[in-house]
Design goal:
Pfam families: Peptidase_M23 (PF01551)
CATH superfamily of the largest domain: Glucose Permease (Domain IIA)
Keywords: Membrane, Transmembrane, Transmembrane helix
Number of domains: 3
Number of helices: 6
Shape: rod-shaped
CATH architecture of the largest domain: Distorted Sandwich
GO molecular function, one term: metalloendopeptidase activity
Largest sheet: 8 strands, antiparallel
Structural class: alpha+beta
InterPro entries: Cell_wall_metabolism_enzyme, Dup_hybrid_motif, M23ase_b-sheet_dom
Protein name: Peptidase family M23
Length: 323
């Protein structure tokens, strides 16, 4: 039961009960209500400042778990990158070397890396640095994997033509061993037989009797047939593809025509003494991308190690060319 309040009346010398008006009661009620609300808000703010709500604790645990997962993902990206780097190195230093393919320029392998950031929309996330770093690594790896995939597709095509290349590369002597008297002059600086000055000798001279058969040293197509009494005299040139060409000079006769396809071991002419030649011999050249290279490195298909060593010894003992 609600207690009544009394007020002393000095006139009647008695205590009269206090009766509140409706307005007073309403004002007091609203005052209590708002005061309680303010106190509740203060308590709520204070509690929230020092203590997490269950929802906040759940979100923090979730963020911590996501951060851990991104760090683990970043570690896996690093492992994958090491594998890709290994594949790229094998591609450049082994596979493309075997198939004589040009290396992939670094400008292509690293194309599109860096530049203007495309991850600004991620700045609104809780941990934008971790997320952006992961996305950048993923994009980097995706591009490098794609480029490596294209490279391997190219190597597969090269592998399919490897047999053709092996048959086309000059790989035998142009004159049989039994017909070979000696190597008159190897590749390099030699004394010119007519001018008696040091001059670059861009091929090898094989001394053999006139009429000795001269063989194509690899599969290819005849691209040059010339007959003359000056310079190299009667000449045949074969294009083997894959950047290789061979030249056969000072022939006594020619057995092929321009445009004809030949296989390794086919007769292209016979040893002679045409042009500026001191004695019957074959001047033989190997060209790679139209640059003369030492033919002595291209007799691996029909010489034993002992025969190859003998050939090198014969070549080393000559100081003058025959043309």
């Amino acid at each position: 039961m609600q207690k009544s309040k009394y007020h002393f009346n000095p006139e009647s010398l008695s205590f009269d009960a206090v009766r509140l008006s409706l307005r007073t009661k309403l004002v007091r009620g609203l005052t209590y209500f708002f005061a309680s609300g303010v106190i509740a808000v203060v308590y709520y703010i204070g509690y929230s400042f020092f203590f997490d709500t269950p929802v906040e604790r759940g979100l923090k645990r979730e963020n911590a778990l996501l951060s851990l997962q991104f760090e683990m993902l970043s570690g896996k990206f690093d492992q994958i990158e090491k594998v890709i780097v290994d594949l790229e190195q094998r591609d450049e230093n082994i596979y493309r070397t075997i198939f004589e393919a040009d290396p992939i320029p670094s400008s292509i392998r690293n194309a599109g890396m860096g530049g203007v950031s495309r991850y600004d929309e991620l700045e609104s996330l809780t941990n934008p640095k971790i997320v952006k770093a992961s996305f950048k690594k993923l994009e980097n790896l995706s591009k490098r994997v794609y480029i490596q995939s294209v490279s391997y597709d190219e190597l597969v095509k090269l592998a399919k033509t490897k047999e053709e290349m092996l048959m086309s590369v000059p790989a035998i002597q142009p004159v049989r061993n039994k017909d070979l008297k000696h190597v008159a002059s190897p590749f390099g600086i030699r004394i010119h037989p007519f001018y008696k000055v040091l001059k670059m000798h861009t091929g090898m001279d094989f001394t053999a009797p006139s009429g000795t058969e001269v063989f194509a040293t690899g599969n290819g197509q005849i691209i040059k047939v010339e007959q003359g009494q000056r310079g190299y005299g009667n000449v045949v040139m074969v294009d083997h593809g894959f950047g290789f060409k061979t030249l056969y000079a000072h022939l006594s006769s020619i057995s092929v025509r321009t445009g004809q396809r030949v296989k390794r071991g086919d007769v292209v002419g016979r040893v002679g003494n045409s042009g500026m030649s001191m004695a019957p011999h074959l001047h033989y050249e190997v060209l790679k991308n139209d640059t003369p290279i030492n033919p002595i490195n291209f007799y691996f298909n029909d010489l034993t190690p002992e025969e190859y060593d003998r050939l090198i010894e014969l070549a080393a003992n000559s100081g003058q060319s025959l043309d």
